[in-house]
Amino acid sequence: MSDGHVGILDGTTFLVCDRAGDILASPDEPVGLFAHDTRLLSTWVLTVNGERLSTLSIDDIHYFENKFYLVPGHEDVYVNSTLSVVRRHTLDTGLQEDLTIINHGAQAVDLTVRIDVDADFADLFQVKDATPERRGRHYRRVDDGRLVLGYERERFRRETIVSVTSPATLDEAGVTLEVRIEPQSSWQTRLTALPDLPVPRGLDRLVIPGRVTRDAGEKEHRLMDWLGKAPRLDTEWEPLSGTYRQSLIDLAALRFSPFLAEDKSVPAAGLPWFMSLFGRDSILTSLQALPFAPELAATTLKVLALRQGSRVDDFREEQPGRILHEMRYGELTAFDETPHSPYFGSADATPLFLVLLDEYERWTGDVELVRSVEQEARAAIDWINDYADLTGTGYISYQRRNTKNGLENQCWKDSWDGICHRDGRLPSFPRATCELQGYAYDAKRRTARLARHLWGDPAYADRLEREAADLKQRFNRDFWVTDGEYMALALDGDGRQVDALSSNIGHLLWSGIVEEQKAPALARHLMSPALFSGWGVRTLAENQGRYNPIGYHVGTIWPFDNSFIAWGLRRYGYADEAARIAAGILDAAAFYDGRLPEAFAGYSRSKTKYPVNYPTACSPQAWSAGAALLLLRTMLGLRPVGEDLVIRPALPANLAYMALLDIPGRWGRLDAFGRGSAATEGRRYQPAPDQISAP
Q1: How far apart are CA 664 and CA 270, in angstroms?
Q2: Who has the most CB within 10 Å: 58, 516, 558, 570?
């Protein structure tokens, strides 16, 4: 979203407009009112006596509401307007605009107020890919005081219904109001644009997520309740407090209620392109947020278990036991022009589902949920062993089966060049990226614990522990790049090392798959100038063939990535290094007013006074909001052990004091305190005896 645009959101409904509150959409920009992957307004332009308005200021009230202060025409220093215009946008199932015009003059004024309206009903994928071709029929009509804009293609239909509370003239292109305002008086009206999104017969798999209507007051109360339930942060560093609060607000904004979970929420991935259910993103965000909002994890686990793969479907890349990657509801999905109903092209969501399941139980003690998804968890293990091992080597690898529009890279670095050799060459398929093996190792270790202690199946637990131990031994042999002393980014289809040095090695640390004697070399690489910019760890080291500081997965810095890297360093005892990464990311957050973007450029901090924007980063994004939460957990050394919460703080040198109060868990509520002296430079924190060997 560009600097010239303003966005508000509420679950999977979002609005992007210009700084005057107008929508003037182009075919390839995410500008407009969107709900459930369809653009419901592509034009919404206010004029007064034929003139557009100029912006004085914008009040960002809530994530779902903002206010624009405007004047008609283009003002200059010689002319003072006697009219003020205030537009208040509020989102619910659609757009509500409260329009107020104030006459500050001594004479009455007669005004023609006009809202021009249009809707192209473009699928979000068509906007993203700049492919505006439509195959259906547009229609519009004035019906009983409402303007109905519609689009129909066979059994697929979408409508936007525009109405106004004041007497008005409606035509097929908009709404006109003739207004007289007395001196020192004001006039106001309310305009609404509400979607009608019927689910056509035969498309039951596309059941649209719940659309619970709430007014602005109820939404604000719900937000305050969300913030009130979260632990309280006490710190003298004001930017950290602001980042923490903004992260919680962003997670609240991205929540939506999926099918069969009307009163519960899962996080959508991010504005504007990913306002939907994503397996990987929802899992990792829920994992980051466990000490703060454990209910996100509970709903995510239930919804993903419900939608788990049950058949072999090459178009959707579905397989029994596989956890979905992405769920969409637009026209292209309805007609199988894209496979997202849902699409399963992710190699990491399935093991990560098991990681989250175990970590959730460790924090909450919710045995009932773990037992309720036992069969889905076992099916996920079967997918790892039977379907994900494409080469017969015991490693998770991927190669798309949907060759038309499936993802080539099915790991978190899913751009076309995200997986590459040291010299920049692209490897052959199947690709077994290193972090996938770490996730599989962690998943088997954790599922073994659940089987032994909660499912009453010690034989199954023993088997999984043997498989995990064998995987760890082979992995440390096959992925170790001897001449560089780091783990290869991947193995290619022939088992050869894809030898790029990347941030993925940090994910290996949080999974626990790295042999302890190899960890010092990985920590050294992660904190070297080639990878660590001072703001954070780059996705690809500076000295690699494809390095680009503004390349999506080949040199940018991702806050979510860094939060898990810091967590991994802390697991292996590198508390100072973890604190340095936390400090860099949180310093960067201050330049973004506390809202960490999806990614920012990988330029060295010594060369830039502030982090450089990545041009098309999503913001807010769920796992970027979650990054600050996981970094807080890492700095305080929070780890559930049995019925207790272990607290072993190690703060950055510039952070003198921090307390996190009322941390929820199976222990009830506990407080954690930390002081900066715990992170003395050059001193390595010693892990607890079971910290490396156990999750």
Answers
A1: 26
A2: 558
298: Cβ–Cβ under 8 A, 6 or more apart, which residues? 264, 360, 364, 366, 369
pLDDT of res. 670: 95
Averaged pLDDT, 326-347 = 94
Contact present, 199 and 206 (Cβ < 8 Å): yes
Tell me whether residue 653 is exposed, middle or buried, using C-beta atoms within 10 angstroms of its C-beta: 0 to 12, 13 to 18, 19 or more.
middle
User: Cis ω on the peptide bond leading into residue 620 (within 30° of 0)?
Assistant: yes
Largest CA distance in the chain: 88
Q: Report the distance separating Cα 578 and Cα 596, nearest Å.
A: 18
Residue 1 above 70 pLDDT? no
| DSSP conformational letter for 3 | T
DSSP class of residue 233 equals E
Pairing of strands 95-103, 266-267: unpaired
pLDDT at 686 over 80: no
Beta strands in 337-449 (DSSP E): 432-433
The residue type found at 382 is D
Measured distance CA(202)–CA(623) in Å, rounded: 35
Which letter does DSSP use for residue 18 in this model?
Answer: E
Residue with the two structure tokens 């182009």: 26
Question: Beta strand 490-491 with 432-433: parallel, antiparallel or unpaired?
Answer: antiparallel
Contacts of residue 89, defined as CB under 8 A and 6 or more positions apart, other chains included, come to 8, 15, 17, 21, 65, 66, 67, 68, 95, 96, 97
Decide: 292 and 248 in contact? Cβ < 8 Å: yes
Report the C-alpha gap between 372 and 357 in whole angstroms.
Answer: 11
Please give the Cα distance from 380 to 395 (Å, whole number): 15
Q: What's the CA gap between 632 and 646, in Å, rounded? A: 14
The SS3 call for residue 517 is helix
The string of pLDDT tens digits covering residues 447-465 is 999 999 999 999 999 999 9
Angle, CA of 46, 126 and 407, to the nearest 5°: 145
* Tens-place pLDDT, residues 406-426: 999 999 999 999 999 999 999
The confidence score (pLDDT) of residue 92 equals 81
CA Rg value for the chain: 26
Q: Which residues pair with 89 in a beta bridge?
A: 66, 97
**Is-contact 280 346, C-beta < 8 A?**
yes
Cα–Cα nearest to 288, from 570, 640, 567: 567
At 259 the pLDDT is 56
